[in-house]
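Supplementary Methods S3. Input chains for the assembly prediction are listed below.
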Amino acid sequence: MDKDARPSWGSPMQFVLACVSYAVGLGNVWRFPYLCQMHGGGGFLIPYVIMLVLEGLPLFYMELAIGQKMRLGSIRAWSAISPYLGGVGLASVLTSLYLCLYYNIINAWSFWYLFNSFQPVLPWAECPLNANRTGPEEECAQTTPTQYFFYRQTLNISSSIDETGGLHVGQVLCLLLAWILTYLFILRGVKSAGKVVYFTATFPYLVLFIYLIRGLTLHGAVNGIKYMFMPKMEHLADPKTWVNAATQIFFSLGLGFGSLIAFASYNDYNNNFERQAIVVAFINSGTSIFASIVTFAIYGFKATVNYESCLERTRLLLLNTFEMAEELISLDNMSDWIEKLNATYPEQFDSLAGVWENCSLEDELKTAVEGAGLAFIVYSEAIQNMPIPQLWSVLYFFMLLMLGLGSMLGNVTAIITPLRDFEVVARHISIEALSGLVCLFCLLVGLSFTTASGNYWFTMFNDYAASFSLLFVVLVEVIIVSYVYGIRRFEKDVEDMLGRRPSWFWKILLVAVSPLVLASLFIFYIVSYIQGGTPTYQAWDKHLGQSVVTEYPIYGQVVIGLLLASTVSCVPLSALYTYCKTKRRPGTQELSVRSGTQELSVRSGVV
Amino acid sequence: MLGTFLVLLYAGASLAQNMCEMGYGGYKVRLSIKTALGDQAYAWNENEMFLFRATLAFAMRKHFNDNQYNILVCNETQRVSFHFVVTDPRNPNVPMEKVQVEKAVRASRHRINSAFLLSDSTLEFLGIPPTLATPFRPATPPWLIAFGVVIGAVCAGIIAMLTSSLVQRRRQKKGKEEEDGEEERGKVTESSMACDHVDGVCNRAFSDDERLTKM
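Predicted structure tokens for the full assembly:
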């Protein structure tokens, strides 16, 4: 029929699943449980839900409305809404590009762990032996086998960001596979992506459910869950709790990248996005809470296993030092024996001071980890102790893959959709070729993250490329919609699409509450950047077998500055450009009227 | 003469014994039977000790291809740990060098462990590092195999999709060429204020024309 008609989702359900697949990502699994633990367990849910309602919902609603109304990607959509502030669309695309560059590395790691699960003994369960086979390899002996597998065999990490090292062949191959798979999913745009999201959105829930059952039946899981859900209300007085709740909601929903605008632009004009926005936002938060229950069951299991092996080591130490028969000391009467022995042989007891470990379940539970450390180290440590570890390992890393690839769909769509809005691109390059070019470019640049120092660059991008800039972008977006474009015109547009105006609830949130929350977050970020001094990173020291805090070298700090400045400066630079353009040709600025649906219904032959 | 010889012999024999009791000249052994075997643990008694001495003598004989050796054991504790010293019957006064004993034990470590149903960590020779079995290394790393399968499948999928969209496009082009002649007349042009032909900025704020065009 009409080949220029904008493609659309096969059904509204595909759109909802695409949003769920995009929003529910790795952050739900590895950041939320950490925040919960750090900020008072069950008590953290209070600021979390409050921020969801005050900030998450209205911003999500706004982005979907913009996309569905304009039926364009972020660049042209924002240029159309507000000609001078159209640079915000460009900033979104640039941030999405940075994200695409480094995000697929995580999928590459998931692939690596997944493929390594098909072995009779999981490679992270045991240390490899040293050269003369007398014991474990030195670096591995200093740390745990799981950490060794991640830092040495997965990343082959160098000791600082300065030492580049070579490419890790396994990583390169896995990254290649990750990009090829991403290409397969998006090569036909929403036509192919719409079918893929049925799987990427639902499969993680299946695995989480299986893990919930498995996790709850593990020995010691209850310890973890009790620890997590015990609300420690005093954390609510700490402003950091509220800031972290707000940032978590913000980043978890994937606002500001332009992916939501891109997805919504393929919607039917009268699609009920209001209901869908509420549904997706709540599903996203619900998934975070669900995932953290699973994570804490696993935590509890791991902490209990570590605690019990600590007790066992202490028991052996006592037996060996005091030459007592094995059956005399058991885990139950150990504390009595410790007192007795300390009283009877104080000098000998003191000589143990160097090797004595204080075993504490509380301490084990307190070791909170977030990010890649949690997903790849802590979880794999827990998995190796389960019966049939290969099965659990495969399930888990496949789930991580689905979560990661689902988010990648949104990230790449956020770049491709705005590019295809430009006629010059759409006419000369087919969508398959454009997707291929974008994937190839990201793959080639992403290879730099597979070098020995690649993980340090990855962490830098992870921390700086898409955090501050997003806050800025969304703040500008909400100010544009509420004040520059005007909430009244926005109301009319929504009424046009849905048949009713947004209620006062949405209007108050959009005009007053969310800009306020965003502005305070923005200021908080600036203040903490200034106060934080030189940015630092965790460098892996192979002699100590742990990470040490190191400052970024000068060129590293320059790159950080560039990452932040490049996206933020898009807005003023583009405003300047538009201003110069209109100044050069005064009076020719016409307000042209055209939209996607007009195009469709006109060309169908009906006048 | 015989008396001196006997006195010397007696004195010499007790030198090794003395060294054993002092705790040097050989190695300390520690067994953790209950930890290793749990319910199926056997009790440590004289018979087991005899087996130990016999196994160690076997290890020494195997390594040196020589005759019998004497194993002196002392300082037995309830932990089940003791000190042993190896003596050569040709020279019973002086215990054998530790290095030699270590080599012999390391060579037959697996046999010694198996005799007691224990492992390197539960039958410890303090000071002799264990010789761990080389892990089985397959010819191709297993992850590469799984990787090969997946990437093959994905590439096949991509080729399939690309060819199908190419075929589709070619079919559409053919169909369009036939229709094009008829369509030219009936083609409805859009509103003259189409966005791309203007050097300005498109403002889509007032795009409410759909209401008019919907029939």
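The mean pLDDT of chain A is 87. The first strand of chain A starts at residue 536 and ends at 541.
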